[in-house]
Specification:
Blueprint lengths: L5 E6 L10 H10 L2 E7 L3 H13 L3 E5 L11 H11 L4 E10 L6 H21 L3 E6 L2 H11 L5 E3 L6 H9 L3 E4 L11 H7 L5 E3 L21 H12 L3 H15 L5
Helix pairs in contact: 2-3, 4-5, 8-9
Bound molecules: nickel (II) ion.
Length: 261
C-alpha cells in the first residue's frame, strides 16, 4: 500500500444503503485517492458481511464485533465465530464495540452493554488485536472500563465526542482519536479545539458512512470518497498542507492497524 493515499478508517460499506451501487462507491473511493476502507461490523451477521467485502475487494478491510446498540447476551458460539473470522489477515480489529447511553436509557440494558464490551475487550486481548470503540454519552464508564479491563489493549475512540481532558488521557494511554463529518460542521462545538491540541500523530480520519456526511456534502448519503473533506478540514485546523496530513494519518492508521498492507 502506497503512502500517498487516504484511509477511511471507519465505514459501513456493507450497509443496505449501498446495495444498489456498492461497486461504484468503491471505484469512486479509489478515484478520490482512498487506498483502504475499513468496514466495521456491528452484529454477528454484519461482521460476516464486512469480512466477505474484505475478501471480495482488495481495498476493503474489516473489523468484527457487536455494537452496543445491538447488544445481546453473547454465547460461546458467537465469540467462536468472531474469533475464527478475526484470524483472517484482512480483519484489522475487534469493533465496533463500546457503550451508547444516548440511545439506551434502561439500566439493565446498559449493564448488558458493559458486559459484552468487556467480553469483547478480552477477545481482542486473546487475539492480540486493537479495538475500535464507539462511545456516546458514556464517557465516564467507557474510560473506567478501558482502564480496568482494557489493560494492554490499544485502539481508537471513533467519532470522537468527548472532552479535551479525556482526549489527552487517551493519547497518554497510547490510543487514537477518530474524527469524521462532525469536525466539518459549522456547529462543531469543541471538536476543532481538541483536534488542534492533540498531536496529529494520534488522529485517524474516517467517514462512518453512510451517515454523517462531512461538509460540503452534509445531508447527502456519505461514502468513503468523502474522507478527503475530513482530512482537508484537519489540515486547515492544523495549519498544515493537505498532502502532509494525508501521509501522516495513513501512517497513523497503519501503526494502529498493523494488518493494513
Ligand atoms: Ni460506525
Amino acid at each position: 500500500m502506497k503512502e500517498n493515499i487516504l484511509i477511511d478508517t471507519h465505514a459501513h460499506v456493507n450497509s443496505e444503503k449501498f446495495d444498489q451501487d456498492r461497486g461504484k462507491i468503491i471505484t469512486n473511493a479509489i478515484e478520490n485517492g482512498v487506498g483502504a476502507i475499513i468496514n466495521l461490523g456491528d452484529t454477528i451477521e454484519s461482521s460476516k458481511h464486512v469480512l466477505e467485502l474484505a475478501e471480495a475487494y482488495d481495498i476493503c478491510y474489516a473489523g468484527v464485533g457487536v455494537h452496543p446498540e445491538e447488544a445481546f447476551e453473547m454465547k460461546n458460539d458467537d465469540f467462536d465465530k468472531l474469533s475464527i473470522w478475526a484470524k483472517n489477515k484482512k480483519v484489522v480489529c475487534i469493533g465496533e464495540i463500546g457503550l451508547d447511553y444516548y440511545w439506551e436509557k434502561d439500566p439493565e440494558k446498559r449493564d448488558l452493554q458493559k458486559r459484552i464490551f468487556i467480553q469483547q475487550l478480552d477477545l481482542a486481548r486473546q487475539l492480540d488485536l486493537p479495538v475500535c470503540v464507539h462511545n456516546r454519552d458514556a464517557h465516564g464508564d467507557t474510560m473506567e472500563i478501558l482502564k480496568k479491563e482494557g489493560k494492554g489493549i490499544v485502539g481508537v475512540m471513533h467519532c470522537y465526542s468527548g472532552s479535551l481532558e479525556i482526549a489527552r488521557e487517551l493519547v497518554k494511554m497510547g490510543w487514537y482519536i477518530g474524527v469524521d463529518g462532525p469536525l466539518t460542521f459549522k456547529n462543531a462545538a469543541k471538536l476543532p479545539e481538541i483536534v488542534k491540541d492533540i498531536p496529529l500523530e494520534r488522529i485517524l480520519v474516517e467517514t462512518d458512512c453512510p451517515y454523517m456526511a462531512p461538509a460540503p456534502m452534509r445531508g447527502k448519503r456519505n461514502e468513503p470518497a468523502f474522507v478527503k473533506f475530513v482530512a482537508e478540514k484537519l489540515a486547515e485546523l492544523k495549519g498544515m498542507d493537505f498532502e502532509a496530513v494525508k501521509r501522516q494519518t495513513t501512517i497513523n492508521a497503519k501503526s494502529l492497524y498493523t494488518r493494513l498492507k
